[in-house]
Amino acid sequence: MDVKEFFQLSAGKWFSQRTSHHLAFKQSESGKSDIKIEMLAGDDPVVIDLCQQYDIDPKLAWGGARVTWDGTMEWDSEKHEGSSVLVPIPDLDTPQSGKLLRDVGYAEKAGVAGRYIIGSDDAMTLITEYETMYSEERIWFASPNLRLRASILKRFGGFSMASFCSEIRMGVTKT
Amino acid sequence: MDVKEFFQLSAGKWFSQRTSHHLAFKQSESGKSDIKIEMLAGDDPVVIDLCQQYDIDPKLAWGGARVTWDGTMEWDSEKHEGSSVLVPIPDLDTPQSGKLLRDVGYAEKAGVAGRYIIGSDDAMTLITEYETMYSEERIWFASPNLRLRASILKRFGGFSMASFCSEIRMGVTKT
Could you list the residue ranges forming a coiled coil in this record (chains A, B) (predicted)? Predict the structure, then answer.
């Protein structure tokens, strides 16, 4: 599988159950979210814009995706909603890995480029290094309608959180 | 990494946080457990016994592990405790995969042999097929002191549960 196929498989609407294990204080927190993933073409202005922000030639991008989420977490009453544009830029020599541009970081509000790697088992691993944080997320399909994500977050050199999401495609009767 | 090294890395005492996402009714359940993993030598009587139960020549086993757990789950007041002996029998031609004998199945009480595969990313995948169930578990180390497990359970042809465990080695100050 290449990164474009991975994005295509991800396109659609998903119901996501999330659990975060806070490692230091041994507590877990759960959340739920509706997620929408839409494919964007290479000539979409937001794709071109994002490439330009990172000084990357937009011709290197086949396109990307817009991810929109709307959910809640257990420990706060705040609404967790937002959207982010993701544009993968495959490495020229090894296209199974590359940069992943995003306009909003997952763990910090500033945009940050991560690295993706698609393994021989068709799972995608995303690695993002922030100034004081490191996150590693593995995303894989148990079936076309069940997507799983496991991530770990490191802060100041130690692991602080492990999270897991199970995402069911909406509108299907069988996962 | 081979299966013996994987077992050796797993040996010790762990604090495990578990979350199960029940997919059909979109609810999650959390639990906590103390887990102890002890290595067993190839000439240990329980290893020899287990091989014989499966009609396997005990000479094919380098040993195994005894896993003991003691925990609680959110939705019942029952104590979840027990122990299981695991003995891997590497395939002769491809030792990165093989049979995994156990005296107690994870999801059913009867003993059942599964398959293990150690990937190029050093994660171990365990596949167990029961009469009416199929389980697939991926176990990997984020660090020597942080072990993660993600599993899915299929019943009657559809996925019914996705579970995640984060396991911290006890007695260390840094994960």
Answer: none
In a domain, A57, yes or no: yes
Residues of B12-26 as b/e, b for ≥16 C-beta within 10 angstroms? bebbbbbbbbbbeee
Q: Are B76 and B103 contacting, i.e. CB atoms less than 8 angstroms apart?
A: no
- Structural domain contains residue A133: yes
**Closest CA of chain B from A160, distance in Å:** 8
Domain of B167? Answer: 3-18+31-171
Q: Which two tokens stand for residue A104?
A: 């909003």
Contact (CB<8Å) A159/B136:
no
Q: Is B121 on the interface with A (CB under 8 A)?
A: yes
A164 assigned to some structural domain = yes
pLDDT of chain A, 175 residues: tens digit per residue: 999 999 999 999 999 999 999 998 889 999 999 999 999 999 999 999 999 999 999 999 999 999 999 998 878 777 789 999 999 999 999 989 999 999 864 555 556 789 999 999 999 999 999 888 999 999 999 999 999 999 999 998 799 999 999 999 998 776 6
* Residue B25 falls inside a structural domain: no
User: B97-102 and B114-118 as β-strands: parallel, antiparallel, unpaired?
Assistant: antiparallel
Interface check for B152 against chain A (CB to CB < 8 A): the answer is yes
B174 CA to chain A: closest CA distance, Å?
Answer: 6
Largest CA distance in chain A: 47
CATH number, domain with residue B89? 2.40.128.20
Query: Between chains, do A19 and B23 touch, taking CB under 8 Å as contact?
Result: no
Asked if B150's CB is within 8 angstroms of A159's CB, the reply is: no
Contact criterion met (CB < 8 Å) for A164 and B150:
yes
Q: How many domains does chain A have?
A: 1
Q: Is the pLDDT of residue B105 over 60?
A: no
Q: Do B164 and A152 touch (CB under 8 A)?
A: no
